[in-house]
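User: quick one - fold this with adenosine-5'-monophosphate-propyl ester bound?
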Amino acid sequence: MATDTDSLFQPKEAFRRTAHVKSLEEYQRLYRQSLEAPDAFWGEQARQLTWFHPPESIREVNEQAADFAWFVGGKLNVTVNCVDRHAKARPDKAAILWAKNTPGEYETITFRDLAHHVNRLANVLKAHGVRKGDRVIVYLPMIPELVYSLLACARIGAVHSVVFAGFSADSLRERVLDSGAKVVITANEGPRGPKSVATKAITDEALDGLAQVTSVLVARRTPKEVPMREGRDHWLDVEAQKHRGVCPAEWMDAEDPLFILYTSGSTGKPKGVLHTTGGYLVYANTTFRYIFDTQPDDVHFCTADVGWVTGHSYLVYGPLSTGTTTVLFESTPTWPDASRLWQVVDDLKATTLYTAPTALRSLIKEGDSFVTKSSRKSLRLLGSVGEPINPEVWRWFHDVVGEGRCPVVDTWWQTETGGILIAPLPGATPAKPGSATLPFFGVEPVLVDEEGRKLEGNGVSGNLCLARSWPGQARTLYGHHSRFVETYYARFLPLYFTGDGCRRDEDGYYWITGRVDDVLNVSGHRLGTAEVESALVAHEAVAEAAVVGFPHDLKGTGVCAFVTVKPDFLRTPDEKMVGSLREQVRHVIGPIATPDRVVLVSGLPKTRSGKILRRMLRKIAGGETENLGDASTLADPAVLDELLTKGLPPT
Ligand code: PRX
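Assistant: Sure. Structure tokens for the protein plus adenosine-5'-monophosphate-propyl ester:
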């Protein structure tokens, strides 16, 4: 493991020359200014956007009530910023480069095309009764209609809620219900690697018996025919033909909602994180410009799915609001083999690549030759997101992928933060592998102990909080503001609590150590242990379940479920039961949540008051046999022997 200071990677000279911020001193000066005079700083950033009416005040903040408003009184439309102004200035510039699932197949969508498609789809939505403020669920694979859908909603002031196309029918249904959407946009199917996701069939199952949804718009990704329900289901291409490609942009208030994105929390129910128009867009735009150090002819390749916040902010809104060409990648990094990403980079001449440590780990495993046989000369910057990046993986990214030429930006943020909060500025900040380095402008990280006492100075570890509002922060959990207050503000008021643990080293650099709550970070995706447990206990055979994370070579964190089975099912062979329980979670939540290990036990470790000792389970699942806590607190000390026999990871 690298120590804090043994490897400082200074910004590359060639990169620094054209960078927006060219030295650490310049960053520090701007950072100080952004804290001392936030209104001036954010007012200046807001001027990068086109407003129908400029903001009257920059921010109104009330931490006690967790009420935040930015750019108050400002009127704008996201699509004027992401589409119209670029379609006017550079109509033939590529807005989207679509890399289809089949290797070598690409499609270019210019800003002119984008304007046409977005306006037409906006008219389709209107014709299906969608009005300003209405929610629209988008359940699409990585096809251009996905981006059009987001922007079409924004055009008319509807609120999009994208559900990742890997989620199950149950998960989709839950989100449709919570959001109250009347319209769902999906596709007949979604090819992905060697498989295809049956998005329409899953949608049908999710909407079964739900009168709430009156229109399902179906994009035709392949020639495959799918059952269409009379009166409810409509082919999107047929609908689009009915409308012209002109639709006036709705005047939105800066604080009008732009989207809801569901994410996992520490309870069984996903939360609908709500972002608003002005603050979110200013933040996505500003962070994208500085952290990816945008240059006019950049081709930005973000490998994340638009179903996650990374895809929202750094595949769609950040790039398009700056007029940057963005790559939409339909396939996976390892299909048909581990050279796929580099092939796309070379074919599309991608300049900035933004991916996740979990993807890098799966590529490292396949060997360097898949990388080195490609050119990658177009690349000038590499970015990482989603989970802590192991220093070895950082070095591989830097040395092998970037040939030591490209800066690596490790970016820390969350669905709730809207954009990146801690990351290096590539022309200014010396990097340390494994550290997200220093806060972005206007961001004030604070570390506190369990009692909420602020940990001053450097060389300290604690709970990572944020001391002041930033424009991109989520405004509420849709329909559950008290849960918003409870989750993020109640514990360390007036600070925002991130749920992450963190160390600030002797140089003031931040090192995220992982979640400190009951949320797992599996392959860079958030998963609540309670969600997986509820999926398991919904199985007829399960009496009780406790889910914990354990270190996993590829996924970062793996999912381990300890389960007790009801007496009637004790005769089922273990292997069959484990298979059935894994399938259960897959079915209820989606493949990403499938437990890596299911351990069938006759009892869970509990205190006499009935509390499950998760810490003990976590340690055992992680292979620890010592310091498991005081076994005498166990109601039934005998369970420990069984756990130690069955629960340790296989060697
Ligand atoms: O634990 C942190 C981890 O991912 C969590 C946020 O997950 P999600 O809302 O799904 O958003 C992921 C993409 C922004 C955080 O609380 N995380 C994210 N980025 C990093 C990270 N941990 C360490 N380093 C990062 N760069």
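One thing worth noting: Residues 271 and 613 are 26 Å apart (CA to CA).
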